[in-house]
Amino acid sequence: MNFFIEVVLNGLMAGVMYSLVALGFVLIFKASGVFNFAQGVMALFAALTLVGFMDEFGMPVWLAIAGTILVMIALAWLIERLMLRHLVNQDPIILFMATIGLAYVLEGLGDILWGSDVKLLDIGIPHGASDYMLDTFDIYIDKLEIFAAVTAAVMVAVLALFFQKTRTGRALRAVADDHQAALSVGISLRTIWIIVWSVSGVVALVAGIMWGSKSGVQFSLSLIALKALPVLILGGFTSVPGAIIGGLIIGVGEKVAEVYVGPMVGGAIENWFAYMLALAFLLFRPQGLFGERIIERV
Amino acid sequence: MTINGASSEILLKVEDVSLAFGGIKALDSVSFDTRKGEILAIIGPNGAGKSSMLNVINGFYHPQQGTITYKGQTRKQMRPYQAASQGIARTFQNIALFKGMSTLDNIMTGRNLKMKTNLFWQALYIGPARAEELKNREAVEKIIDFLDIQAIRQKAVGKLPYGLQKRVELGRALAAEPDLLLLDEPMAGMNSEEKEDMSRFIIDVNMEYGTTIILIEHDMSVVMDISDRVVVLDYGRHIADGEPHEIRANKEVIDAYLGVSHE
Asked: Which residues in chain A have their CB less than 8 angstroms from residue B176's CB?
């Protein structure tokens, strides 16, 4: 039984990581209808910048984090100026392709600026087995993962409050709902886009820090974007809670499947489980668990 | 018949505006003006360019030719943000509400430009941001009372019946405390009772706040009842302009529109 709980908990923790990346996707998709293929690379770029600031410039952790946040905001501004502004009213597929381009640009930029070797990221997050959990419940969990889970929870709570309670939050939801109506009440689409890409950039930074602390900052980090895809299909592209719960389900699902079903089919379920689950969802519930149902009038 | 005391001061003047989409001329050198404090109706058959005219005024469409003079400033075109910040609010023919949001939140977005605190305070939701939020909330509650929609304050607007949605949309426009209110078919699809309510709201807004209103409407009895002046468009051309009784008697208007059944 203990072993089962351990597997589930480990799955939940991995799921939190997926959720963090998926969250960045959802924010941008909600506000601008753009599927941002570069979200994973943004996490990588943020982590690279953070490590670079710390290692090459010798900045203390807090300064490096503040600096990286500024870089991500500047990036959002540039993306609006150089990319989104020129693609207003284009088909979603055009915008999607533009973000693929963006992904390559960012990856190349990260490489040029900070080099392509695997880097250690240690900003002082506790890690190693949690003694308390081990002693009291005989369950093995990494402290880093508990830390990541708490951070994600706090971030979601803050975002939820921001979306519900503030003028800008309302404006973000308004833009997501109806561009024309939003314009008519004097909401500036450009400002909203910069804000939403900045927020996504910060979310990407948090995701980058967590992944980077766990397994080093390496370019394969950008591939976690692919795992976020099934998460989004599961949770629905437009739902913040959906991104979180979708991530958790996939995290737990793949771990449990790997441990209990894996031996029967020769293992390696973890690699494809998420995609199979997403496929099943596409067949039976294409809007995901929490997404808005798409009803086409004919 | 003049319901209120519209002054002779011109608030909005549209001159020689032409708008084409490819080969289709939506507006063909249209000119008219609106006096401060009046209710002006734009009528005309389907496809006459009425909605295009409103879209030009609030900056959604940019005409190829002509000028728009608003509050004494002459421009080639408006921009939506500019229009909103200069006090032009509007509703849409096919209701454009934020469907996932509550009635209250929808109307609150109308106060977007009335709120000034920066993102930093908002993110913390303390100090000035909170005080401002509460102050604007009061203004919104007043509008909710005025439109008699207290019962649906917290409901998601996507699920409301059509007539109520139209009312919420009017509320959102009013929340901006506009000088010029553009209403695109405010009574479309309503039963006669709802139409009466809506007419009353429009007249009340005009009388109480002196808001200038330009509205598009197909129901002739409503138009003749509530408007001070009527502009008639047909195939993108301006064919008549005058008080309701003049329009009713105008031969060209009758030919183009009133005399022909469009049912």
From this structure: 185-186
